[in-house]
Amino acid sequence: MKKFAVFSLLVLLSLNSCIIKDPKPEQCIVQTKKITTINQGASFDIIFSDSQGDLYYINRGLERGLNLDSLNTKVLNKTVTLHLAKVFGGLATSEHIAQLSVENKIIFTEFK
């Protein structure tokens, strides 16, 4: 029973480290990518694909006032700078976009 309680606690802590809440710039990896497609995903997410086929997303981007037509004009086939949130205590990078900019102009940010 004691082993199960310890295991359960470890699972809960691991799952909690995957939840991205209020990311900070220092909790992100900065990457530049050429965006080749932009689509609507599940739960009002906006999905971006880069030239290597990697996927990134803005969580509930459509609910946050972003528009696919506008993003296509500003971002499609351009090189962007992505701030991608770290997970697992900084040991891994998620596909969660905390900030997106083009030519030093911020298109979207979660930073406060």
Keywords:
single chain, 112 residues, alpha+beta, OB fold (Dihydrolipoamide Acetyltransferase, E2P), 2 helices
Strand content is: 35-45%
Low-confidence segments, ≥5 residues, pLDDT <50?
6-18
Rg from Cα: 16 Å
Mean pLDDT: 83
- The CATH architecture name reads Beta Barrel
The description of the largest β-sheet is: 6 strands, antiparallel
Tally of separate domains = 1
What would the CATH topology be?
OB fold (Dihydrolipoamide Acetyltransferase, E2P)
Spatial strand sequence of the major β-sheet: 3-2-1-4-5-6
Structural class: alpha+beta
CATH class: Mainly Beta
Shape: globular
The total beta strand count reads 6
CATH evolutionary superfamily? Nucleic acid-binding proteins
Number of helices: 2
Order of helices and strands: HEEEHEEE
Distance between the termini: 44 Å
What proportion of the residues is helical, as a percent range? 10-25%
Model description:
This protein has 112 residues and is an alpha+beta fold. It has a single domain (2-109), classed as OB fold (Dihydrolipoamide Acetyltransferase, E2P). The protein is 22% helix and 42% strand. It has two helices and six strands. It has helices at residues 2-18, 68-75; strands at 28-40, 46-50, 55-58, 79-87, 92-102, 105-109. It has a six-stranded antiparallel sheet, with helices on one face. A hairpin with a 4-residue loop joins strand 4 (79-87) and strand 5. The longest helix has 17 residues, at 2-18. It is globular. The N and C termini lie far apart (44 Å).
